[in-house]
Amino acid sequence: MNKLMGVAVCAMSLASLLLPTVGKAQGKVTVEEHVNYNGFSNNIRLSNGTVELILTTEYGPRIMRYAFVGSGDNGNVFATLPGVTLKTTLGDWYIRGGTRFWHSPENDPRTYVPDNSPISFKILSANSVELIEPTEVATGIQKSATITLDPTGTRVTVVEHLTNKGLWPINLAGWTLSAMHPGGKAILPQEPFAGHGGSLLPARPIVLWTYTNMADPRWYWGKEFITLTQDPNNSAAQKLGILNKQGWAAYDRGGLLFIKRFGFHPDATYPDYNCNNEAYTNNLFLEMESVGPLTELQPDATLTHTEHWWLYKNVDLGEGEAGIKNAMDPIVQETAAQLMGK
To answer: Are 259 and 235 in contact (CB under 8 A)?
Structure first.
């Protein structure tokens, strides 16, 4: 976001230690309406006894909380930012925090259409809720999102929908942005490293913005990972984008690890010089972003963009890239297996 302020046995053993904790109420998801959260009284809470989600209906669509049950404010992986406002020609746009749903490429004011009005919702099943925003008058786009919580464990499936309610085709992409709780570190996987001679063709694009400073100490540029640390004492904005063929990115804060998985389509064209994964930070938060393929969306047509989320406790990233790899490999394998239904 550029407008706001500026191994096998060991791996198996580690995976068993890092598996999401399952609570006593496992096997059933509860959906509660009219829940008070952050000064608003009409939120929806989904919980399976292990994790909980807070979905907004007085503005949005937004997901403002994802946390282990009983973990308090500090347990929320998402940032809460009530006082950050951007003035646009379309009105005041509030960052708020949480996860929001946009359409890419980014443009002012089109991207920043205020989402301050009440939205509708549908309870689709015992563990799934759809949030539906009124059609944006300025763009003709209607946003909605379907949020599904697994009955056990921590997995959440989030499907963003963009529907063209206008009269002409629009070229755009789905874009899901999670503003993360400050004080953590984003982990972005690179393509498998191979020495010179392994391949003659480039393996991965890395895209930089005009304000990206590669010498900023919050960056770590490794052989296998790029990391970006959120520093509350550094207000300089930083951003990069990558074509992430591995299909995952993670955020660690003191051993609480959030991982999101998203698609990569080799034949697709993505926004921002072909990026499907981006990260942005300033002194208030860090954003974990995934982007879908650019699509010419016909009138009355809908495109979707999907993310899958998990939470893990007590993750030890150890030292350097070796520590990150040892911690992340079993998590990446375990989440991939879940997506494949294993």
So the answer is: no
Q: What is the DSSP letter of 120?
A: E
Structure tokens at 204: 């991965």
Measured between alpha carbons, how far is residue 161 from residues 101, 294, 303 in Å?
9, 14, 6
Chain center to CA of 169: 27
Give, for 302, the enclosing helix (H) or strand (E). Answer: strand 302-312
| Cα 2 to Cα 12: distance, rounded to the nearest angstrom | 40
Distance CA 99, CA 79 (A): 9
Element (H, E) at 326: helix 320-339
Domain ranges of the chain: 8-339
**At residue 6, what is the residue type?**
G
Provide the token pair at 216.
């900023």
Structure tokens at 114: 């205020």
CA distance 225 to 223: 6
- Amino acid 32 reads E
Q: Which helix (H) or strand (E) holds 291?
A: strand 286-291
What pLDDT score was predicted for residue 200?
Answer: 84
Residue ranges, the chain, pLDDT below 70 = 1-26, 342
Per-residue pLDDT reduced to its tens digit, 298-335: 999 999 999 999 999 999 999 999 999 999 999 999 99
pLDDT, residue 196, reads 84
Q: Which of 76, 70, 33, 73 is nearest to 50 (CA)?
A: 70
Provide the residue type at 98 as one letter: G
Q: Which of 86, 141, 147, 79 is nearest to 116 (CA)?
A: 86
Residue 34 Rama label (left phi>0; alpha psi -120 to 50; beta) = left
Q: Would you state the pLDDT for residue 19?
A: 42
For the domain made up of 8-339, the CATH class stated in words is: mainly beta
Asked if omega into 61 is within 30° of 0 (cis), the reply is yes
Q: CA–CA separation, 41 vs 58, rounded Å?
A: 8
Which candidate, 86, 88, 129, 74, places its Cα nearest to that of 254? 74
**Which tens digit of pLDDT belongs to each residue from 112-128?**
999 999 999 999 999 99
